[in-house]
Amino acid sequence: MPLLFKKQVSQSTRIAVWAIHEEEEKLLQLLPPLKTAEKELLKKISFKPRRLEWLASRVLIYQMTGVYPETGYFENGQPFIVRHREHVSISHTKGYAAVSVSCDSTPGIDIEFPSPRITKVAGRFLNQKKETFLRPELKEKQLGLIWCAKEAIFKKAGQPGLIFKDQIITTPFFPENDEGSFEAKLYLKEVEYDIKLKYYCTDDFYLVWLL
User: Fold this and answer.
1) Among residues of the chain, what percentage have pLDDT more than 90?
2) Residue 77: in which H helix or E strand, if any?
3) Quick one: fold of 111-210?
4) Which CATH superfamily is domain 3-107 in?
5) pTM
6) pLDDT tens-digit profile of 127-179?
7) Where are the domains of the chain?
8) Which residues, including other chains, have CB under 8 Å from residue 51's CB and lie 6 or more apart?
9) Cα torsion at 5, 7, 13, 17 (round to 10°)?
10) C-alpha angle 5/115/64, rounded to 5°?
């Protein structure tokens, strides 16, 4: 079973990552029978990799909570597990799904496939005046983790229209190891919030979650 890992990252929050090696039927076998709403939703997803990601993320929710993985979305875009008290954050990328569950507050997690695309679009999310600590030998990994961090913080904040370049600023960090931590600041309505993050990297993905 391609559950890569499951971690209790704090007293209230745990995360898990699934490597998607199964075909759709196998993933369906790992879930309770889908209800009509989920069947209809799955029918609307025509792109096969996206269908597998959707199913894998629901397998994670089911295994982590033990409840039927029906999800809904608040007006701000944050997902929630129907008829379950824990909060959830969901992410997926090429061949992987990641979920964070917390009993205290909305968590934040993001997983991304390493790609030159991240460097190409860095101008959209990197603050050129404040995030100036990139090193040539670490730049690709730093940019990947900065992108993941800002996505995870965005999911936590639940504020549509958040400007990544100006409202989420990462402090200097140098990911020479595959696991570590760093910090960021979130600016909302003239209030500054300190955010603590953890990361885990492989050749296939960058993963960042909030503590």
Assistant:
1) 97
2) none
3) Ribosomal Protein L22; Chain A (3.90.470)
4) 4'-phosphopantetheinyl transferase domain (3.90.470.20)
5) 0.95
6) 999 999 999 999 999 999 999 999 999 999 999 999 999 999 999 999 999 99
7) 3-107, 111-210
8) 24, 42, 45
9) -10
10) 20
